[in-house]
Amino acid sequence: MAAWRRLCGLALVAAVAGVAGWGFHRVFPGSELLMAVVPAAVAPPAVAVLTGRRPLWLALAIDLVLWFAGAVLLYGGPQPALFADVANAWHALLTTLLPAQPEPRLLVLVHTLVWAAATVGAETLARTRTRIAAAVPALVVYGVALLLGVDGPGSNLPVAAALLVLIAALALVRENRPAAWLLGGVPAAAALAALALVAGPLLPVAAHPYNPREDADLPPPVRVDGVSPLDRVSAWLQIPDRELFTVKADQPLNWRLAVLDRYDGVRWTSGARFQPTGGRVPEGEWTGRADVVRQTVTFGGLPGSWLPAAERPVEVGGVRGLAADPDSGTLLAAAAPGKGFSYEVTSRVARPAKQDLLDATPADDANLTAFPAGPQRQLFRGLAREATEGVDTPIRQAYRLQTYLRTNASHDVTAPPGHSLKGLEFFLRTTHRGTSEQFAATFALMARTLGLPSRVVVGFRPGEKSGGVYHVKSGHVVAWAEIKFDRLGWRPFYPTPGRSGAKDDHDVVSSAIEESEALAGELSQGGSDRPRTSRPQSTGDGERPASGQDPWLLAGAAAGGLLVVYAAVAAVLPWWRRRGRRRAEEPGPRVLGAWRQTRDDLGLKGERALTAEDIVIRHSAEISTHLRPLAEMSNYVRYAPDGITDATATAAWQRSDAIRRAVRAGTPLTTRLRNRLLLR
Questions:
Q1: C-beta neighbour count of 68 within 10 angstroms
Q2: Residue 648: closest CA among 621, 627, 628, 629
Q3: pTM value?
Q4: What CA–CA distance (Å, rounded) separates 257 from 477?
Q5: Burial class (CB in 10 A: 0-12, 13-18, 19+), 566
Q6: How far apart are CA 234 and CA 242, in angstroms?
Q7: What is the DSSP letter of 247?
């Protein structure tokens, strides 16, 4: 083979590996990705050129040394955790909100995969007469990039088109045909790639791709600070002139700090599952009209690692080690920011119409309507029913509760702190005075007795405006409550009345509170209080793509390759997932894996709000015989994990396998095949 063909082939192998590595641009957008990809794609083919007539072990040894040197450069110096990062980076990426921060501990996975693909491809091309086998490792890397980048911004279709053109050029170079063939073959491959760009979005998997993050084990809820922000409300009100932070924004809003959705009868805590992110925060349920508000926040004396922002943040810049809770949009820094620390936030502030509010129905979430056991439940339920008498529409009930508390108790910053059930009972029966801590906590609990899913939010009013900047002091702290509605998402309510005789500089009323009062007035006038049927909402997907495309659009090498890969994934993926769950190191995760596998087998993968008892009672006796013991085992793992043994895990999988056999026996073969091909 002519030397030029060999060199050209190695150059194409480097290009294929580099382009496959660039498939991670949905995971790590930015130039940092190039620093991990380019050296990894170029160095192994260069080694193959220099060691073409030397033993293979020598080439591999040189590649290994160069890989290590490249990794050290990526880290900026020797790093003892290098090999551990390579092993753990994939799991870290599965629990990260994309785009991920381009940290060396994550980029080293891309660096290693591309280096391995380039090494195998270059040595295969240099030492064999195969045509496109050298590109197969790069295609595997591209497949990994597709899976890890499902949630990321941008598209990988152009990357797939570029790979197709490069692989076609590699095949032509290895064919020993005249160089003129390249002049016709490469444009033909480019035309086929353009066809694939058009046909790709029409494939069924393009609309609902498999997302491995849905099966990843998220970190458990953690207590962020030693002192809850809700416990700080009364203390902050006692020293109202302490400046906490400043906000440069186009309009005054409430700056939320923490969201608390769990209540045990003594205190409200956060159930947030924070995930690392490079700056993007998933949007909430509301997809309608919203204002885009950009803020620049600068820390003064605000303690803790919570990051204030207007609801709902969708993009954050300037924070290293940023984490966000996808459900609430709450932001958290890896370490407590110091004075002068600044970051930028872009928020979408929902602006639903009056009819959207009237049509809203409460979300179905048992965790958000749970009320701790105790005699106070009857008190809260009785007062809630009294406040909402004659009103059945959920949104009107919520505004009636807000009005009831604002008119039947007074705001007093000298009131004793605390939000335990006994303390709130004392507030309702005796003192009738409190801070926003008591008002927000009481509203949330009263709402729960009506079946309205609620939580408490701690934040700050806009602050004092000076030169286009809002100066937020400790006296601006405020707690409010939120109720969750289907498709509408979380709606704020402000049950705390204004402070009589308060100074203006310590009692700035936010536009959100003013709008809330105006809406309450509008919704209490006219119209029936009977519940209304919710209107179908737009999915936001736009018009459906035109159907009836000619079959030749999906013909050719690109379509065939995609179908083969898709079929392989559909065949192997469920087995691989089940195998990983069954082989967990500890018995507790193995029991939970058996429970997750059973939920998948029963077709309940997406219904996370169902309790174990809900699942048991909806199935036949043949399945419930095994389902109930398995549900009890999974509950023991969650609440009493110390007693779980290997024998328990083995028994759990025996139950799971029995349920799987029963489900398969009762499901037609055609249905099973359809579910498998659609990755259900």
A1: 13
A2: 629
A3: 0.64
A4: 10
A5: middle
A6: 14
A7: E
Neighbours of 223 (CB within 10 A): 8
Query: Which residues are within 8 A (CB) of 134 and not within 5 positions of it... i.e. 6 or more apart?
Result: 9, 13, 16, 120, 121, 122, 124, 125, 170
pLDDT at 530 over 50: no
CB 663 within 8 A of CB 672: no
- Match 């024998």 to its residue by tokens: 647
- Please give the biggest Cα pair distance in the chain: 96
Cα four-point dihedral sign 624, 630, 632, 635 = negative
Whole-number Å distance between alpha carbons of 356 and 359: 5
In 3-state terms the chain splits into helix, strand, coil percentages (rounded to 5) of 50, 15, 35
Residue that is written with structure tokens 């043949």 in the block = 622
Q: Are strands 410-411 and 433-434 parallel, antiparallel or unpaired?
A: parallel
Task: Tell me, yes or no, whether 199 and 256 share the same domain.
Answer: no
User: 477-485 and 410-411 as β-strands: parallel, antiparallel, unpaired?
Assistant: unpaired
Residues 188 and 47 in one domain: yes
pLDDT in tens, 470-514: 999 999 999 999 999 998 999 999 999 986 544 433 344 455 566
Rounded-to-integer distance, Cα 193 and Cα 185, Å? 12
Q: Domain containing 460 — which CATH number?
A: 3.10.620
Domain range holding 260? Answer: 229-355
Q: For residues 259 and 56, what is the distance between their CA atoms, to the nearest angstrom? A: 59
Residues 136-149, buried b or exposed e (16+ Cβ, 10 A)? ebbbebbebbbbbb
The rounded distance, in Å, linking the Cα atoms of 84 and 65 is: 18
Q: What is the pLDDT of residues 623-677, one digit of tens each?
A: 777 888 887 887 777 777 777 788 888 888 888 888 888 888 877 877 777 666 6
Interval 22-41: pLDDT, tens: 999 999 987 889 999 999 99
Q: Is residue 557 in some structural domain?
A: no
Q: How far is CA 436 from the centre of its chain?
A: 31
Six token digits for residue 236? 């902050």
pLDDT of residue 504: 39
Torsion of CA 488, 494, 495, 500, to 10 degrees: -160
Residue 316 domain-assigned (yes or no): yes
Is 544 a domain residue?
no
3-state secondary structure of 557: helix
pLDDT digits 0-9 by tens, 403-429: 999 999 999 999 989 999 999 999 999
520-546 average pLDDT score: 44
- For the chain, give the mean pLDDT: 82
Q: pLDDT (tens digit, 9 = 90+) per residue, 192-245?
A: 656 655 555 555 545 566 777 777 776 665 556 556 789 899 999 999 999 999
Is 28 within 8 Å of 155 (Cβ atoms)?
no
Mean pLDDT of all residues in 373-381: 91
Class of residue 600 by CB neighbours under 10 A (exposed 0-12, middle 13-18, buried 19+): middle
Supply the pLDDT for residue 507.
44
Residues 182 and 257 in one domain: no
Place of tokens 């790709």: 200
Asked whether residue 528 is assigned to any structural domain, the reply reads no
Boundary (domain end) residue, out of 355, 372, 388: 355
Highest mean pLDDT out of 61-70, 168-177, 581-590: 61-70
Could you tell me if 356 and 394 are in contact, meaning their C-beta atoms sit under 8 angstroms apart?
A: no
* CB 7 within 8 Å of CB 73: no
Cβ(328)–Cβ(354) below 8 Å: no
Of the two residues 196 and 459, the one the predictor is more confident about is: 459
